[in-house]
Design a protein that fits this description.
With 199 residues, the chain is α/β, with parallel strands linked by helices. Helix content is 15%, strand content 31%. The strands form 3 sheets. The chain has a 10-stranded mixed sheet with strand order 23-22-19-16-13-10-7-4-1-24, with helices on one face. The chain is globular, with a radius of gyration of 17 Å. It starts with a strand and ends with a strand. This is Gamma carbonic anhydrase family protein.
């Protein structure tokens, strides 16, 4: 389904295929020979999303952009089933495996691999030809990679990146952080009330 959001409609190259059941919403450009499979969601939440040529977005993947963090995926990339990418810059010939998560402000260099269930955290930069192993977490710039059992080390680096401040503009030490966060984010998302299906 194609959806107009905030007055913007998706632009799909005539050689691209968007499967029935996929949702493409807002300021989204999909290049030649892209394939967007069943259940995928590509949602431009106030910022643009651009897919280059020959990009494959597999079943139930979620691609999002915000006004502060657009999303750009270069040519010849594959986004695996259940992967999630939010407001990142992804180079060319990148493999993002099943269940991988890439957060706002991340940069993924050309020919990199983010393997099954791996995480590239907020504002993390992977140089070209990087590999984030299965289930590992990449954090920071310069990047450090941690196995999932290194929670304290991951948290120490992650804390410096200030997720609530960067993404939501809120101080982590606010006593009612989740109250403010959910109310603010709900107001932002309520803009979908005026969306219009266009195809």
């Amino acid at each position: 389904m194609l959806v107009e959001h905030l007055g913007q409609s998706p632009r799909i190259h005539p050689d691209a295929v968007v499967a029935p059941g996929a949702v493409v919403s807002g300021d989204v450009t999909i290049g030649a020979d892209c394939q967007v499979l069943h259940g995928a969601v590509i949602s431009a939440e106030g910022g643009p999303i651009v897919l280059g040529e020959h990009v494959i977005v597999m079943e139930n993947a979620v691609l999002r952009a915000s006004s502060s963090d657009p999303l750009r995926i270069g040519d010849h990339c594959l986004v695996g089933p259940l992967a999630s990418i939010s407001g990142a810059r992804v180079g060319e010939e990148v493999f993002i495996a099943t269940g991988a998560r890439i957060f706002n402000g991340a940069v993924i260099g050309d020919r990199s691999e983010v393997r099954i269930n791996a995480v590239v955290h907020l504002r993390t930069e992977l140089p070209p030809e990087s590999v984030v192993p299965i289930g590992w977490v990449a954090v920071g710039s310069p990047v450090e990679m941690f196995s999932p059992d290194k929670h304290e080390e991951i948290w120490a680096r992650q804390l410096q990146l200030d997720f609530p401040g960067y993404v939501f503009g809120l101080d982590r030490d606010t006593p009612d952080l989740m109250v403010q966060l959910t109310e603010r984010y709900a107001r932002h998302l309520s803009r979908h009330a005026d969306d219009h299906p266009i195809g």
